[in-house]
Amino acid sequence: MTRIAIVTGASSGLGAELVRQLAEGTFGPLDQIWTVSRHARQTSPLVRPFALDLTDPASFDALEDALRETPGARVVLLANNAGFGTFGDFADMPAPDNAAMARLLMLAPVELTYRTLPFMGPGSRVLNVSSVAAFMPQPQLATYSAAKRFVLDFSRALDAELGDVDIHVTALCPRFMRTAFLDHAGANDVAARMSRLTGFEDAGRVAERGLAAARAGRALCIPSASMRALYLATKLLPYPLALAAERALMG
Ligand SMILES: NC(=O)c1ccc[n+]([C@@H]2O[C@H](COP(=O)([O-])OP(=O)(O)OC[C@H]3O[C@@H](n4cnc5c(N)ncnc54)[C@H](OP(=O)(O)O)[C@@H]3O)[C@@H](O)[C@H]2O)c1
User: Fold this and answer.
1) What is the three-class DSSP state of 241?
2) pLDDT tens profile 149-200
3) In angstroms, rounded to a whole number, what is the distance separating the alpha carbons of residues 207 and 13?
4) Which DSSP state fits 107?
5) pLDDT in tens, 193-249
6) How far is the CA of 115 from the centre of ligand 1 (A)?
């Protein structure tokens, strides 16, 4: 059996941390770590890089073909992590950004999960990176926050479906991390205001918590205690009230 972990968006930020910790053995023994992003490159002997654009559906075929061609391929972990967010008013957003966000944040995790499932078995795990932005609709982040909500709900429903065969799906909801994500055009101003509300957390710690939750088979992982409280508040407060409170806090 060839034990494989697949990590998308591994060339920087949270994905690079996930790969570093996987290579150190945090998730148990692995034969290969497949990293998938446009600039994927060899970072350790275990790593097999796939330089692919996950907004292009041909990339899903390429990965499925590679799994078929690998003798005894067993996907023990699929981490759907690749992502970017464009912040700002929806009407002012560059049109390609909305389509790319929808493809990368929603279609890619769905396709990759579907195509890797036949190569999974009891004990296999899917770690889907969502965000605290998923907790409620976010003006100035309309497409991004809705896509992350999709990831959250998709993960939890799938976890309930697959739990009987001991395949678990975890939605990981980090708050702001200081990664290249924040360098994206338009992000800095809104991100600065939003991060006042949520604060920053360390990508290494988020990776550690996410991998531990996946191993334990937990459907939801919110690493930050204050964000767990926010999650609860968004479930209790009516949306207009939660939105008003968020706007007041952001200034
Ligand atoms: N940073 C935050 O504040 C924060 C908070 C909550 C959730 N998140 C989520 O965390 C995840 C990781 O983000 P990060 O903070 O680590 O940001 P990052 O450092 O910018 O990493 C994003 C990764 O996604 C890859 N990627 C982007 N477009 C891609 C495409 N079209 N095809 C394939 N790969 C692509 C990038 O690699 P290439 O450029 O090589 O393609 C990169 O490896 C994302 O899903 C993000 O939404 C981030």
Assistant:
1) helix
2) 999 999 999 999 999 999 999 999 999 999 999 887 566 676 777 777 778 9
3) 10
4) I
5) 777 777 899 999 999 999 999 999 999 999 999 999 989 999 999 999 888 877 776
6) 21
Residue nearest to atom 46 of ligand 1 (CA): 83
> What is the rounded distance in angstroms from the CA atom of residue 118 to the CA atom of residue 19?
23
With a 6 Å cutoff on the Cβ, whether 53 touches ligand 1 is yes
Of 48, 50, 8, 6, give the one whose Cα is nearest residue 27.
6
| 16 alpha carbon – ligand 1 mean position (Å) | 10
Alpha-carbon gap, residue 221 to 13, rounded angstroms: 18
Residues near 23 by beta carbon (within 8 Å), at least 6 away in sequence: 30, 33, 43, 44, 46, 47
**DSSP summary character for residue 139:** T
- Among 1.20.120.530, 3.40.50.720, 3.40.50.2300, 3.40.1370.10, what is the CATH number of 2-250? 3.40.50.720
For ligand 1, pick from 7, 12, 129, 197 the residue to mutate: most ligand atoms within 8 Å of CB: 12
Ligand 1 contact via 170 beta carbon (within 6 Å): no
Distance CA 57, CA 84 (A): 18
Residue that the structure tokens 């290494």 belong to: 204
Answer yes or no: is the C-beta of 85 below 6 A from any ligand 1 atom. yes
CA–CA separation, 111 and 63 (whole Å): 11
